Amino acid sequence: MTPTNKQTNDTGIHEGASLSRRDFLVRGGSTLALLAMMDSSLFAQMAGAADDGEVIPFIDRPPAAPEAAVKAYGELNRLDWQKLTQWITPNDQFFTVSHYNRPVIKPEEYKLEFTGLVKNQKTLTLAELKRRPRQEVIFTLECAGNHGFEWFTGGIGTAKWAGTPLAPILQEAGLKPESLEVVFFGADAGDEEVRNVNMRQEFSRSLSVSDALRPEVLLCYEMNGEPLPHEHGFPVRLIVPGWYGVANVKWLSRIDVTDRRWAGRFMTRDYVTIREEVLAEGKTVWTQKVVGPARVKSITARVVFLGGRYRIEGAAWGGPIDRVEVRVDNGPWVSATITRGKEQDFAWKFWTLDWIGVTSGEHTITSRAVGRQGTVQPSAEDPSLTKKHTYWESNGQITRRIRIA
In order of start, what are the domains of the chain with their CATH numbers? Predict the structure, then answer.
């Protein structure tokens, strides 16, 4: 636990007394256990194998979700790595997280407002959005709290999202010169108390104008060829490829352009990563940064015995991936083969590696992803993780333990 574990959480309950959402959604960035993949998957198929072979189970297995978490938040439809059979995650298997209520909106009554520092304020219906140019993006959406608790390893999924690009609409509205940020409001809302003031707050997040104008940012109304499911923000949500899930606002109701930094709860009091950083002269400072773009990450998903040889399989995501490297025990890093998704900037990659020279006994397997810009998934001992004092953005290298007979 970090030095913050005795502070009062957003519900006013001391952490440890009960399980708040902040407690429940991640802690730490060290080596964590993952589920072994123990039935058919596409990893072998993408590598050209005809049979998945015999799965060798890992020794380290995550505990079940605490009863308090299940009671408070349900199962969240977390990805079950043992049942991963498709590169695209089916809608009914995609994880869900919500912060307030889950509003029910009739499609014929839906309206999306554009307000603030625009020359032409406008309101668009769902039908009007669908008449605009359609665009698709395959994007792996990960909860910023994924892999925080040992049992919360499935807050991730990949879908083909479809909608209309945001940028042309903002350009048509006419951004005023002083525009700084674009704030996205969801129809989901809850009661908040700030400095003894009770207020009704809509879920909200913002992007800089330059990020909001990126061509891949969508006003999304389809998920895997179907209308957005209710729990995923029907009828319209924001899709920001390359960013953690919290930025992808669901039940989108209003887009407001402002000349000031937005300071809503989910950008100031929650989803903020706090770290100790050491300056060049040795001075330690504390930094607080809003959770934003996803960080490079990988997992070793399973080991299979096939045709007299062992094969290690896994996945990597969190940005344009250049390569994935794997280390057995304390040996050298060896490049794996990306078998699916290499051409996709925003979707996870499946990878495999033939394990040569396997000996009986216990072994450790560690993977790390390397981004196209040279960013390397950090080790558990990296200061960026050991000096992190909040639960978000846990992307440390994950080491698995396995016993070979």
Answer: 3-91+289-404 (2.60.40.650), 93-140+157-271 (3.90.420.10)
Whether pTM > 0.90 for this model: the answer is: no
The position carrying tokens 């990949």 is 158
Q: Are 156 and 95 in contact (CB under 8 A)?
A: yes
Give the span between the Cα atoms of 357 and 399, in whole angstroms: 19
What is the distance between the alpha carbons of residues 312 and 189, in angstroms, rounded to a whole number?
A: 44
Return d(Cα 289, Cα 274) in angstroms, integer: 7
Decide: 222 and 83 in contact? Cβ < 8 Å.
no
Give 28's strand partners: none
Residues 262-317: tens digit of each pLDDT: 999 999 999 999 999 988 888 999 999 999 999 999 999 889 899 899 999 999 99
Round the CA-based radius of gyration of the chain to a whole number and report it: 22
Q: How many CB atoms lie within 10 A of CB 17?
A: 11
Question: Could you give phi then psi for residue 197, rounded to 5 degrees?
Answer: -110, 120
Q: Which two tokens mark 288? A: 């607080």
